[in-house]
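Side project, low priority. Logging it here so it doesn't get lost.
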Amino acid sequence: MEKKLLVASVLLLMLLGGAGYLIGSGFVDYALYRANPDDPTAIPEAAAAIVEPGLDAPAKPQAESETWTITSADGLKLVATHFSPAAPGSRWVILVHGYGRDQRFVWDYAAEYLKQGYHVLTPDLRAAGRSEGKYFTMGVRESDDIVLWAKEILRRDASAKIALHGISMGAATVMMATAKQPPQVVAAVEDCGYTSAYDMFTVQLKKLFGLPEFPVMNCVDVVSRLKTGAAISAAAPYKSVPYTGMPMLFIHGDADKLVPVGMMEKLYAASAAPVKEKWIVPGAGHADAKNTAPKEYFTHVFDFLETYMRAD
């Protein structure tokens, strides 16, 4: 089926001709390409227009830390920071940052987890921070990388119990990862994740450029597969959550204009998680639930995770 879709997409691109490729290529580079992979602060041009400008990264947690590295399935060097809690234990969380960000932008979340006695791993996703890669894939290959990080934790701590917690694209990555049976992952938190990157970029295409979905997004879908190895349409958490086998907490702000709260409702309805909860934060914009209601945010998160993170 996948080969048939690729053939059909290539045929469409051929019909549209060189203009179709140029349109698709331009948008892929605008939205997914890190122009300077040697600069850990470099982000795609679109990210500068979408994410909050001028936001300083949170301070690094005051905890013992070390750099970890692994190699992705397609040969990229991936980098993360491991923070150790004050007291030994086997509770772990992998915190996954969002689009146009890097691991530093989840260090405020990390500080709260450390207070609760968790080991914290904050990866730079591919094409972000100090990790290698030229292109984001909006959760497709990133979710495979998170599975590898879970395996690395287990290699270092055989008794680990792992939670996943992602924000925005990180939440989409987490949802997609849960369907891939990452080892020793017992629960997940997704905060403002999208149903699909295709849907989200379709909305932004109209807002930023006034362009229609067809044929532009069709061209983008084909070219993204050719350039990044993953079609935009494959970054679709709503296709993954029906195969989620672990408890999941869904968090969303009702004032989110980038990823409408209706996307969370669709994801929640489609989820096959054995236990699932949702919390909608009044007045919170995109990726702003924690800042809007900080005390309630972490009360919800840690109350939800507590059942699944207890030692046997």
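Brief comment: The longest strand covers residues 65-71.
Revisit when time allows.
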